[in-house]
Amino acid sequence: MKYLERGYLEADELPPFPPEERINSKKPVAYIECPQSIPCSPCYESCRFNAIEMENINDPPKVDYEKCTGCMACIRVCPGLAIFMLQVKEGRGYVTLQYEFLPWLEKGDRVRLYNRRGEEVGEGVVTWALKPERNDRTQLVTIEMDKDLIFEVRAVRKR
Ligand code: SF4
Ligand code: SF4
């Protein structure tokens, strides 16, 4: 489990990406980067479509990309910021992720894009932003970017 010392996942430690035809569809698809065996299951419990497989609470979640409807219930409840919604439409890429910095992001904001190592890899635009509830500290945001970057970008910061 080298990723624990390193602090991020390398390409060969990632789950398989959703097939191209699922990413290029009308609904985004959940991609979960949560490899550690820990007793955590809000994602599994939140999925009404049985798209998340987990035989016991310590298992890392596994998404059935055919069953995932893109409803975003799982990404709202993940305490580990480990879920990303991926989509490509009209040649542009979109990643929805959890965001916990102030100031909160708003639609139209320009953001810097960072990969898993924390390296800046480009620039994107916020196309959707859900403000947190009063007692929550996590915002959900969708970022438009170059379509090839959706497999790499895992954090953003306001410009
Ligand atoms: S986006 Fe919805 S359908 Fe897809 S895995 Fe998450 S909760 Fe299940
Ligand atoms: S809720 Fe998040 S941290 Fe917990 S098992 Fe699911 S993906 Fe991992």
UniProtKB/TrEMBL annotation:
GO terms for molecular function: oxidoreductase activity. InterPro entries: 4Fe4S_Fe-S-bd, 4Fe4S_Fe_S_CS. It comes from the Archaea. Residues 59-88 form the 4Fe-4S ferredoxin-type domain. PANTHER family: FERREDOXIN SUBUNIT OF PYRUVATE:FLAVODOXIN OXIDOREDUCTASE-RELATED, IRON-SULFUR-BINDING PROTEIN. This is 4Fe-4S binding domain. It comes from Geoglobus ahangari. The lineage of its organism: Archaea, Methanobacteriati, Methanobacteriota, Archaeoglobi, Archaeoglobales.
